[in-house]
Structures are given as C-alpha cells and as structure tokens.
Write a structure and sequence with these properties.
about 210 residues, alpha+beta, SMI1/KNR4-like, 10 helices, globular, SMI1/KNR4 family protein
C-alpha cells in the first residue's frame, strides 16, 4: 500500500481527499457504500438565510462549498459505518424551519437532538455554558464512525473548523477532550480542505487497526 494513500499531502483539497479514500478502499478490498457524492449547488439567498437562522457568519470556504457543491455524502442511507456527510444549506434551512424543527446547529443542541436527548449535558454544564457552546460553535457535517460513535464537524466564529469525537457510551471523554476546552478557547484550527484531509487520514488509520 502506498504511503501517499494513507496520509494526504500538504494542501490536499477535499475533492482530492475523497478520491484518495476511494483509491485506498479499492486497493485494500474494502467494501464501500454506494457513494452519493456531491449534490446540487445552493444559491446565495439560501446560504444567506442559513446564516440568519443560526445568527453566525459561515466560514468563507464553507460558503464557497455550498455555492459550488451544495452537499457531499458517502452513502445514501446516512448510517453506513465510516461514511462522511456534509449537508447542503438548503436541507439545513428546511430542517430549521420544519413543523418539528431541528432546534439549531449549536454543538450541544444539535448533538442532543441527533441522539434523541442527552440529559447529561444539563447535568454537567450550566445553562450559561450550554448557551455559550451553542452560540460559538455550529455543526455542519459528521462522520458516522459506527452506531455509537460519530465525529461532528463544527466551525467557530472566527471561521476555523474542528471535530468533536462523540461516543454515546463515553460522554465524560467528550466533555474532557472537547466541550470543556471549547469553553476556555476555541480549539478549531482547520480550514475545510484541511479538516476533510485529516478525517480521511483518520478513516484510513481506523481501517488498518
């Protein structure tokens, strides 16, 4: 196996990273889910609407992704193991305005909603701390590692991106390694290309464990 497939080169784009993972999977005889790939581009009005609904500016590269690709998904079902999903702005706007709406894209409210309720958040953090986390960090995609573990992609108000590794059976670990540090200072340091390249590296490493 070529090392160039295991770790992306400096400056790798997200398109190149996704292609690298497909090449690695084929070379390693890994069965891949039926890839959906990129979606349809969002328009400026929809992207602007999303910013207003979450009361936060989008990173410039995420805005550009929406306007060029809209979305990306490694599988149709959304719950195939080791698959990455980036929702389009139009779907997020619809979810936020639905009759039974997604409460928001803030990290706590989104993860709480995604898992059907995580009362541990209210037990561990004050209302002010939860509000701060939701205000300063917004989720835009995830990797479905397996049924109990998801890696959530978020951006901060400075336009940098990061990852929350959330295992439903290891809540304390997520608090110690992700949520508590986020209350002190933003750990986000990726741009969109760098985040996806790093995540593909991690997916390949997990497949070889």
């Amino acid at each position: 196996m070529q090392d160039s497939l295991r770790q992306g080169p400096k400056g790798e784009t997200l398109q190149q990273a996704f292609t690298r993972y497909r090449d690695f999977a084929m070379a390693s005889d890994i069965d891949l889910a039926e890839e959906v790939g990129f979606g349809c581009a969002d328009d400026e009005v929809t992207v602007d609407r999303l910013e207003k609904l979450i009361d936060s500016p989008l990173p410039a590269d995420l805005r550009a992704f929406y306007l060029r690709h809209g979305s990306y998904s490694m599988s149709e079902s959304g719950d195939d193991w080791e698959t990455i999903h980036l929702s389009c702005a139009d779907d997020l706007v619809c979810d936020l305005q639905d009759d039974d709406p997604l409460p928001g894209l803030g990290v706590v409210e989104f993860i709480d909603w995604f898992w059907g309720g995580r009362p541990e958040f209210a037990e561990r953090f004050s209302r002010e701390q939860i509000a701060e986390l939701n205000r300063n960090y917004h989720i835009f995609g995830h990797c479905y590692v397996h049924d109990n573990r998801h890696r959530y992609y978020y951006f901060d108000r400075a336009g940098k991106m990061g990852v929350i590794d959330f295992n439903q059976d290891a809540f304390e670990s997520a608090c110690e390694h992700d949520f508590e540090p986020m209350l002190q200072a933003s750990p986000a340091h990726f741009d969109l290309d760098g985040l996806i390249s790093s995540e593909i590296d991690a997916m390949i490493a997990r497949s070889e464990m």
